[in-house]
Design goal:
Length: about 800
């Protein structure tokens, strides 16, 4: 199966005032969880026990916007509930505290399900070695206390499993009538020589439902279920990872009727075993049943080199692969690691959570290079290049400085994306803590531009640096932002607010005008009110209007109190670049190359002198050219800018170290890594015609900006212009009872595209390649003339050229 290497960000020369300031899909929601200390904006880190790792297994968003997270630490079941803004809920458990319950033995939490009445269920297993696992389901009241009685005990929980077997409860679902379904697995003779799926159904009070299976229990051989979903027709679908006879793993499903009997119309008499990829394996991390009955399954794809990548498949309602998904392949494999600089860490991309948005887009979450990672796909399996700001359809988040893992995901009613997992800091043995992040789900908006400093626009999440004030004589420091209406219609209800634990150290000195005509501008002045001791403080500045379609603009305000210092800080469009960070120039054409503009700011309180900008000797320093900064002496909080142009001299990754020498009090010189690659033929074609290498908007594969009936991919494949309407490319003729179709194509396309000529007897019939041959007539090195042949037998009445991505 073909591996999709997501394209990296294409950056042609960036003009001023072109960066959107409003939230884009995939941006962290900065109004969530920012406490100025333990967590970054948009994230929350919660320690459960000081010196013990906590594993997060489940996450759910309640109807009131509160976020429930469940996991385990040793023999303790752990629960945390957050308010909509990320603070712990004082009405849950003991009040603004994690809730821990001692279970007697080592406990593993596996799933969670919400009931309409506010109660919720937790599933899992208790490891009672050497006697095996005991499955359990526990119900809690809305306030976090166990629901007593539930089941046949007064403990608020049920344990179940066959005598002599090891049983796991992996997932739960609540039916419309209040009955409860629990799916899991069981194996005989600990640690287990045979295993299968088991589904239990309970009445709302927790007692077994005798109308389901055999006394409330249905079991099927094959694999131990890890996920469950209810279909609209009442049927039940469970999924698992199954180890095949060749010791490889792959997706496995079983579908049963509402009474617990297998559905013979699905797969092979009710069960479906998906063949593993050649030489590799697949591991199921989630699935969903769509409204039309089709099944989306997602997880990890392991190749023969034991490299893991994200993967999504789609099946028809009967369990057969869906030939309409992802260019007819039926499966998309996404290599997140190709986006990373060489040698930057662990290259394994592990998926752990899956969700389908109401608009049909698909979200797959996990980790790559020790960071949270999310990929969003369009309903047809194509990566959603509008998700995140890199144009790749992927986002990455480092919650703390160590390892970060997503293990669960949920969608809020307003579309925001909440993920939960674990993170730790670099210094071992610092334990893993509960980590939660929330992301925006809005299209990029340019109606409100925040200009600071003059001549540039801050993106969503950009940093407004108020600099450092002297500890010996702290005084208020102010700065003014310009807000400009670029949307074409008046903005009303314009207002600004501060949030975050350190919001009291900042103030809005002069609010913006409440109404802003099209093209008009207003100013917003903010101040940093320093503390007398050494401090570094940040807060979130949010700018809103009364237009619901606009969303919000959130920025970070930062200031500090220090001794006499000169401090060099580096930014690109308002986003800080830490020393040692990497900047991706993306695919570029050698001429004119990609240009990025960097800003140097003195965030100290003494004068800073710049002593030179250069490139290290390693990598490909000749591929990068730096322009001179506008000035070489900066007073406190002053800034200057300089451009860097990337013109790749060869294929493959191209890297260089950018070094800025200065009189920085602590850190001369300031170094970051620059990297990029030579554009492929298709990327270079997009850059030439659309000034972007990203398949999005007018530049997308299937877009037709000149409205001539030919998509961009066909225009590129046949050396046609995508911006000027033309006739159907190529020439067709019949010679000696042979139909010949001749086209000209770029040689570079042969490494990126498959070309196929297909024929049909009529438009309602199937298309076929039987009897079609291909001949290269000529090759100039940059262009090929190719001819397709097929017999002129009277049956082949219609021909079409099919072009697909490799």
């Amino acid at each position: 199966m073909q591996s999709v290497r997501l394209p990296t960000l294409a950056c042609a020369a960036l003009a001023a005032l072109t960066v959107p300031s409003a939230a884009a899909p995939g941006d962290l929601d900065f109004r969530f969880g920012f406490d100025d200390q333990a967590s970054a904006p948009g994230t929350v880190v919660t320690p459960i026990f000081t010196n013990t790792n906590t594993s997060v297994s489940a996450l759910a968003v309640q109807n009131d916007g509160k976020i429930l997270v469940a996991g385990n630490t040793g023999s303790f079941l752990c629960l945390v509930r957050y308010l909509e803004d990320g603070r712990m809920d004082p009405a849950f458990g003991a009040g603004a505290q994690p809730l821990t319950l001692h279970m007697g033995f080592t406990v593993i939490v596996t799933g969670m399900a919400l009931q309409p009445d506010g109660k919720f269920l937790i599933t899992g297993r208790i490891n009672q070695n050497p006697s095996g696992n005991v499955a359990f389901v526990m119900r809690f009241l809305p306030n976090g206390l166990p629901d007593n009685p539930f089941g046949t005990t007064s403990a608020g929980w049920i344990t179940f499993g066959e005598t002599g077997w090891s049983t796991t409860a992996a997932a739960a679902a609540v039916l419309a009538d209040g009955k409860i379904l629990i799916a899991g697995g069981e194996s005989q003779d600990w640690p287990g020589t045979g295993s299968g799926t088991v589904i239990y159904r309970y009445l709302p009070n927790g007692t077994a439902d005798p109308s389901f299976g055999v006394q409330g229990r249905a079991a099927f051989a094959g694999a131990q279920a890890t996920h469950i979903s209810l279909q609209t027709d009442g049927k039940i679908l469970v999924g698992a990872t199954r180890i095949t006879a060749s010791a490889r793993s792959s997706f496995w499903f079983a579908r049963c009727n509402a009474n617990g009997t297998l559905d013979p119309n699905f797969g092979n008499f009710g069960t479906l075993s998906v063949p593993p990829p050649p030489g590799g394996s697949m591991y199921l991390r989630g699935f969903a049943v769509l409204g039309d009955g089709k099944i989306l399954a997602a997880g990890d794809n392991e190749d023969e080199s034991h490299r893991y990548d994200f993967t999504v498949m789609r099946f028809l309602p009967n369990g057969s692969p869906d030939p309409s998904f992802y260019y007819g392949i039926g499966k998309v494999v996404t290599d997140l690691s190709s986006l990373q600089p060489l040698g930057s860490g662990n290259s394994t991309d592990l998926a752990t959570a899956f969700a389908v948005q109401p608009d049909g887009k698909l979200l797959l979450a996990g980790h790559t290079y020790d960071q949270f990672a999310l990929v969003r796909y369009l309903p047809d399996g194509e990566p959603d290049h509008g998700f995140g700001r890199s144009g790749t359809g992927m986002i990455k988040t480092a919650v703390q400085t160590g390892r970060c893992r997503i293990t669960a995901m949920a969608l809020q009613p307003d579309g925001k994306i909440v993920v939960g997992g674990n993170s730790n800091a670099n210094a071992n043995p610092v334990p893993f803590h509960v980590a939660v992040a929330r992301y925006m789900d809005r299209d990029p908006l340019r109606d409100l531009a925040v200009e600071w400093p003059p001549g540039s626009v801050l993106p969503y999440g950009g940093v407004v640096e108020l600099g450092s004030v002297l500890q010996s004589a702290p005084s208020e420091r102010q700065t003014t932002l310009t807000l400009r209406n670029t949307g074409g219609i008046p903005l009303t209800g314009l207002a600004a607010a501060l949030s975050g634990a350190a919001a009291a150290r900042f103030s809005i000195v002069s609010p913006p005008a409440p109404t802003l005509a099209d093209g008009a501008a207003t100013t917003l002045t903010v101040s940093f009110n320093p503390e007398p001791q050494l401090t570094s403080r940040s807060a979130v500045l949010t700018i809103k209007t009364d237009r619901a379609d606009l969303g919000e603009v959130s920025l970070i305000l930062h200031g500090s109190t220090d001794g006499p210092v000169a401090t060099l800080s580096l930014y690109e469009h308002g986003l800080p670049l830490a020393p040692g960070s990497a900047v991706d120039f993306g695919p570029a054409i050698a001429v004119p190359g990609n240009t990025r503009v960097f800003t140097i700011r003195n965030t100290g309180n003494l004068d800073l002198s710049l002593q030179g900008i250069s490139f290290g000797s390693t990598g490909n320093p000749g591929d990068f050219i730096a322009g001179a900064p506008e000035t070489d002496v900066l007073a406190g909080n002053e800034f200057t800018s300089f451009p860097v142009t990337f013109s790749p001299a060869g294929p493959g990754p191209r890297t260089a170290t950018l070094r800025i020498a200065s009189t920085d009090t602590f850190n001369p010189p300031y170094e970051i890594t620059l990297w990029g690659k030579q554009a492929t033929g298709l990327e270079a074609w997009r850059l030439t015609h659309f000034s972007t290498a990203v398949s999005d908007g007018d530049a997308a594969d299937l877009s037709d900006p000149d409205h001539d009936g030919l998509s961009n991919l066909l225009e590129y494949a046949t050396l046609s212009s995508p911006l000027q309407p033309g006739i159907t490319p190529g020439q067709i003729e019949t010679i000696d009872n042979t139909i010949k179709y001749t086209i000209v194509r770029p040689t570079s396309a042969m490494t990126e595209l498959f070309y196929t000529m297909e024929w049909s007897e009529d438009l309602s019939g199937a298309w076929s390649t039987a009897g079609v041959t291909e001949t290269v007539v000529s090759d100039t090195g940059t262009q090929q003339q190719v001819q397709f042949h097929t017999p002129a037998d009277g049956i082949r009445r219609l021909l079409r050229l099919r072009v697909t991505r490799r």
